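INFO  loader      accepted 1 record
INFO  loader      residues=111
INFO  predictor   begin
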Amino acid sequence: MVAQALIEAFFRGTPPPDGVLLAPVGTPFQRHVWSALREIPHGQTRSYGDLARQLTSSPRAVAGACRANPIALLIPCHRVVAQKGLGGYAGATQGPELEFKAWLLRHERAL
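INFO  predictor   done
INFO  writer      dumping tokens
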């Protein structure tokens, strides 16, 4: 039931219900990036470079953490884009994964 409430909140564009704790398994750095991803508001994007500067890291490291994200819809890595263009999604730079990223961003009116 919790997952359903989170997904419904995402598609409504509202914050997730209070008290929901997401605890995906990852390295400390990955969890740090994933936490920052959750701070990007619905309907907005950040570039890999902007996020890397915020986290004092590199764009490639941020992209790697995005690629390792185990719950991509709820930890919105689709909101991280390249300086020019969409960048990648789920490790792909073309094909259905990138089409899904574009769909998510259009749904949020961020594209």
